[in-house]
Design brief:
273 residues, alpha/beta, 8-stranded parallel beta barrel, 38% helix, globular, binds (5S)-5-amino-3-OXO-hexanoic acid, binds zinc ion
Length: 273
């Protein structure tokens, strides 16, 4: 079977200590959990920033502090989120690309997000993509729904593939309002991806295991982390991000999918550090 790389998403924009006291919110906590996740087998880190109160923040200083900490202490591929939180402005989200991480997330359409709307109108998606092309930042195309995959095709038809020569997509499944985290939905989304695309998937909450097991069977890469999952099982809260990476590595071994380190992941994604 083909190799697999594991992305860790240590903290999103939505959860706090009340939801799970193990979630890292401050830069030093995020860096420490990134270090432990790399030791466990992750090779790419998807980063969100929080302010001192723990709220989502796209502040340049905070993101730079996390990015530098991760670079200093790990060899992880660094990806900054341009999704931020549902209340973050388009301009703040655009500005993230200027920090020139190796990769940025790029969500390919709007989606109901619980009781909120995660807004990604096409002109904004296009602006983000053009900024990534200009800054030599590899986009990770986030698809929360089949319509987002259609928008990805529209984007690539108009502007061509990323300069790195790799189209890498992440299927985000099980968000309340997006596609469900089921094997059937995963098969449907994967069938629509651009030919030759690299892809990973993540299942939010309880959909994490069905999505992970189906992804391993289909040859995709994995994303895990406390951005997406706060309970390890019905009765057990997640301890920390490394615990989720440990489980992903164990399942990859069972599936006989060798786990790639950061160097091999960079090679696969057309990146050079
Ligand atoms: N926090 C969500 C509203 C991304 O990182 O690019 C958006 C999100 C996607 O997490
Ligand atoms: Zn995110």
């Amino acid at each position: 079977m083909s190799e697999v790389f594991i992305t860790v998403a240590p903290t999103g924009a939505e959860s706090g200590y009340d939801d799970n006291p193990g979630i890292p919110l401050q830069p030093d906590e995020i860096v420490a959990q990134a270090v432990a996740s790399e030791r466990a087998g992750a090779s790419l880190v998807h980063i969100h920033g929080r302010d001192r109160s723990g709220a989502s923040s796209l502040d340049r200083g905070i993101l730079t502090e996390i990015m530098h900490g991760v670079r200093e202490h790990t060899d992880l591929v660094v990806q900054l989120s341009t999704g931020g939180g549902v209340r973050d402005s388009f301009e703040d989200r655009m500005a993230v690309v200027g920090l020139q991480p190796e990769s940025c997330s790029l969500t390919c359409g709007s989606v109901n997000f619980g009781d909120e709307i995660f807004r990604n109108p096409y002109p904004f998606v296009e602006r983000l993509y053009l900024a990534m092309l200009e800054n030599d930042v590899l986009p990770e195309f986030e698809c929360f729904d089949l319509g987002h995959v259609a928008t990805l095709h529209r984007l690539l038809d108009r502007h061509g593939p990323p300069r790195q020569g790799v189209v890498h997509c992440n299927l985000v499944m099980g968000v309340p309002g997006g596609m469900p985290g089921t094997p059937e939905a995963l098969l449907a989304a994967r069938a629509q991806l651009p030919a030759g695309a690299s892809w990973s998937a993540t299942g939010i909450g309880r959909s994490t295991l069905p999505v992970m097991l189906t992804t391993l069977a289909l040859g995709g890469h994995l994303r895990v982390g406390m951005e997406d999952v706060l309970r390890f099982s019905r009765d057990e809260p997640v301890r920390d991000n490394a615990q989720l990476v440990d489980r992903a590595v164990a399942l990859a071994r069972i599936a006989q999918r060798p786990v790639l380190d950061s160097t091999a992941t960079r090679a696969l994604l057309g990146l050079s550090r």
